[in-house]
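Tutorial, part two.
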Amino acid sequence: MKTTPKRICIYPKDVQTITGKSYRQSARLLQRIKEEQNKPQSSLVSIDEFCEYTGLKKQLVENYL
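Running the prediction step on this input gives:
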C-alpha cells in the first residue's frame, strides 16, 4: 500500500483554514515569515518555518493539511 507523501510547504489557504484569518491576512503572515527569514518574495514557506514563527506544534498543523 502506497502512502501519500506529506507536503513540506504551506499556502495562504492553509493558513486561513488553520488560523481562521482572511485569505489576505494569511498571505501577509506568510510574507512576514519570508521577510524575517530573508527569503526572496517568490520562495515558499515550509511548515517548519510556519510553526517556528507562530509557535504552533507541527502535528497540529499537519492535521489540518
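The radius of gyration is 12 Å. In part three we will examine how such features are distributed along the chain.
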